[in-house]
Amino acid sequence: MAIVDVQGLTKRYGTRRGVEDVTFEVAEGEVFGFLGPNGAGKTTTIRQIMGFLKPNAGRALVAGLDCWRESVAVKRLVGYLPGEMALDPGLTGGQVLEYFGNLRGGVDARYVDELAERFGLDPSRKFRQYSHGNKQKVGLAQAFMHRPRLLVLDEPTTGLDPLNQQEFARLVRETQAEGRTVFLSSHILSEVEDLCDRVAIIREGRLVHAGTLAALKEIQRHVVEIGFAEPVPANGFAALPGVEHAELVDGGRRLRLVVQGDLDPVVKLAGEHRVTRLVSHEPTLEESFLRFYSGDGGPSTGGAAEGAPQEAARVP
Amino acid sequence: MFLRSIYLKTLRDHRVGALAWGFGPGVLLLATLTQFEQLVGSAEARAALVAMAQQFSWYEEPIGITRPGGFATFRLGPMLGILPSVWALLAASGTLRGEEARGALDLLLATPRSRARVVWEKLAGLATALVVMALVLGTLVWLAGVTAKAEYGALDAYVFGLNVALTAGTFGAIALLVSQFTSERGTAAGMTGGFLALSFLLHSTGRVSPNVKWVSYLSPLYYAGLTKPLVPEVGINPGAMLVLAAIVVVCAGGAAWLFTRRDLGFGYRLPLLGVLPASGRPAAADGALARYAFSGEWPLRSVYLRSLRTSGQAALWWAGGMAGFAVWMTAIGKQLQENLVAIAASSPLLAAVFSRIAGGAQANALFLGMLVFTFTPLVISAFAVTQAARWAADEEEGRTEMVLASPVPRWRALLARFAAIATVLLGISLAIYLSVAVAAAASGLALEQTHLLAAAFGLVPVALVVACLGAALAGWLRSGSVTGGLILYVVASFFVMFVGPIFNWPKALIRLSIYDVYGSPLAGGWDWAAMSALTTVAGVCLALATYRFRVKDLAR
C-alpha cells in the first residue's frame, strides 16, 4: 500500500488557481521528490496532505487515512517542516523542541539532543535570535525528533550551509534505511538527484510528470546534428517516430533534429546516406527539469498531466 | 503616488488610522453636543448637571459645563486625549521595532539611504498622519460648535484638534523611545500603555488631592489639560503646548539618535528589563554548544498551559493596572464622597440629588460602582480584544499551523486557548476584588462583600463575550479586521450604554451593550439572568468559532 495516495486533488482559492486534479502515490520507504516552479502548487498540495486545507475535489490519504477527516491520526504518523516556519520567538530552540515533543508525546530527549548536535544547533538561544539557517535546524529537529513514519519536508535545506546539507542528506538516507518515507519538496536538483527515488513535477497547479528519475531521463529529448556529404530531404526524418523537430541547413547538407526517446530510427535512416558528422547532445537532468518548469514539456508530458502520471507514479 | 518615498509610504500606512481617529472622536463630540440643549434646558437641570459633574472632578475639571464648549470638554476631553494616544503609541512602536521584528527594515535599509534619513522620513510620515487627524477632528469640532451655537470659533476648534494630536504624539514619541530598549513591539507598546494609565492616575490624583498636586506635573496629560480652547475661561495655553512639543522632540529625537547607532534587530540593555543586548551575543566558549535536556517546565506541557503562560504574562500588566486603578479610586472615594456632602449641604436641591450617595454600604456601593466598575469592564474588554487578536494573528502568521502539525485536534487547540484566556480573566477579576476589598477596608469604606464579588467576577462573562466573539470572527476575517470589528463593538457598546438612555433609544438596542447587561452588581448584587445571558452568548460564539475552525482552511 502506498503511504501517500493523492487522487484527483483539487483546490481553488475563489477564482485563483490552487491545484487541479493532482494524482500521485508515494510508496512506503522511498524518498519522493516534489518539484515545481514558484507558485506551481507545491505548498498547496503539501498543506492538503497535512490537513490544513480542505480539498475542493479529490482526496489525499496517508497510510489509508483521509488527510482531512482523520487529520489527527495522520499527524501521529507525520513529521512536518513548513516552507515558512513561524514559532514563538520568546522560546529558546530547546523549549520549542520540548513543547512540540510534549504535544506529540513519546519523544526521546536523547535523540533530540543528538539531532541538535548533528546540526550544530545551540538550543539555549531564543528563537528570535537564530539566523535563518539555525531556525531551519530547529524546524528539521522537530520534524525528525519523533522518528515519524512519514516526513513531509517543504524545502528543507533552505538556508543550511553545505555541511548541514550533507548532514541532512545522511539523515534522510538513515530514515529511508529504517523503512520510513520522506516526501521532499525542493528546488535543489542535485539534492533531488542524490536523494530521491522518484519525483513528481507540478506546474501551474497541474502535475506534468511523476515517475522515477530513470524514467525522466528516458523521456529526455536529444538534440542531434548530422552532417551529410550530399543534400538530403528532411521529410523522411520529420516523419520518424519521436522526431519533434527537423531542420535542414547549409543547403540541405546539415540536419538538426530534436528527438524524444529512441534514436534508432534516426540513425538507421541517416545510414542510408553518406554521413560526415554526427553529434548528439543529451540534456542534463537540470535541463530536463527546466524544460518541465518552463512549460516546454513536450507531448508525452502533456499527456502525463491528463492521466498518464497515474501510470508513471504507480508503485512498483 | 504614496509609494514614491518612505515618507509617503509611512503616511499611506497610517492614513486609515489618521482619518478614523479624527473622524470617530469628531462624530462623538458632534453627538455629545446635540444632546446639550436637552441636558441644560432648565435651571434645575443645570444645577443637577453641575452637581453630577462634581462627582467626576477626578476625571476632568468641570469648568463652564453649562455651555457647549465646556460641556464637550468635560465629557470627552480626557478620553479624546487618551484614545488617540493608544493609536499613536501602537503606530510608533510598530514603526521601527515592529518593522525590525518582521525583517521589513532590513530591506528598506538595503536601499541607498542613510539610517538617519529612513528614520526621519518615517517620523515625518507619522507626524503628518497626526496633523491629518487634527485637521479632521478640528473640522468636525467646529461643525459641532456651529450646530450647537457654541461660543468657540474655527481657530479654537483646530487648536483643540492640534492639542489632541500633540498629546497623542507625546505618547507615540515615548513609545518610539522605549522601543529602542525592547526586543518586541508589544513590550514597548505595553510599557507605554502602562505609562499612559499611570499618567491619568497621577493627573487625577493631583486634581482631587491638592496636597500632592505636584504629582500631576509628572503626567503629560496634565499639560494637555491646561489647554482647553473650547472653554473661554481657560483658552489656549501656549506654554503647555510647548512642553508637549518638547517631549515629542526629545523622545523622538532620542529614539532616532539611538536607532542610528545600534545593531539592527537588537536593543539597548537595561538591567531591569532583561532585553536584548545592543549587539549579537558572542559564541559559547570554545565553540561548545550548550546541551539541552528536556526541562519539564510546566508551560511546555500542553497547549492550555503554554497559552496560560503567554496570556498570563500579558495579563500581569493589565491586572496590575486595573488593580492599581481600583485601589486608587477606592482610596479617594471616601474623600470625594465627603466633598460632595459638603457641597450638597449648601443647597436643598443638591442635597436631594446627593441624598443617595452618602452614608451606608449601599451608598458606598453606588458611588464606588460609578468610580471603579464603570471603566474596569471597558478595560478588561480591551484585554480580551488583544487576546482574540493574538489568536487570529497566530493563525495568520503560521504559529497555529505548527501546533496543528502535531496530533492535536483543531477543536482542542481552540478550546485550550480560550480556557487559558478564561483562567487568566478569573485571575484579573480576583486581583480587582482583592484590591478593592483591601483598599475599602483600609479607608473605612463599608461594602457588601457578596456584591463586590459579583462586581469583580461579573467582569469575566463580559470579557468572555468579547474574546469568543473575536474567535468566531477569526473564522472568517483576517486579524486586522477581527481587531477592528471588536474595537468597534466595544466602543459602540460603551457609547450606547451612556447615550442610549438620554436619547430614549429602544431598550432592546441598549441591551445589545454588554456593559448595560453587566449593570451595577456592586449595588444590586449578582444578576443571574444577566450573567447567564452573557455566558450563553459567549458559549454560542465559542461553539460557532469551534465549528468554523474545524472546517476552515488555515489562513496564512
Describe what you observe in this structure.
- The complex is a heterodimer of chains A (316) and B (556).
- Chain A is elongated.
- Chain A folds into 2 domains: 2-216, Rossmann fold; 221-281, Alpha-Beta Plaits (2-Layer Sandwich).
- In chain A, helix 3 (93-104) runs parallel beside helix 5.
- Chain A has helices at 42-49, 71-77, 93-104, 109-118, 132-144, 162-177, 189-195, 213-218, 235-238, 264-270, 285-294, 298-306, 308-313, and strands spanning 2-13, 16-27, 31-35, 57-62, 65-66, 78-81, 150-154, 181-185, 198-203, 206-212, 221-228, 243-249, 254-260, 275-281.
- Chain A has a 6-stranded mixed sheet, with helices on both faces. Chain A has a 4-stranded antiparallel sheet with strand order 2-1-4-5. Chain A has a 4-stranded antiparallel sheet with strand order 12-13-11-14.
- Helices cover 36% and strands 29% of the residues of chain A.
- Chain B is mainly alpha-helical.
- Helix content of chain B is 73%, strand content 0%.
- The model of chain B is unreliable at 272-288 (pLDDT under 50).
- The chains are: A alpha/beta (316), B mainly alpha (556).
- The interface between A and B is large, with 46 and 39 residues.
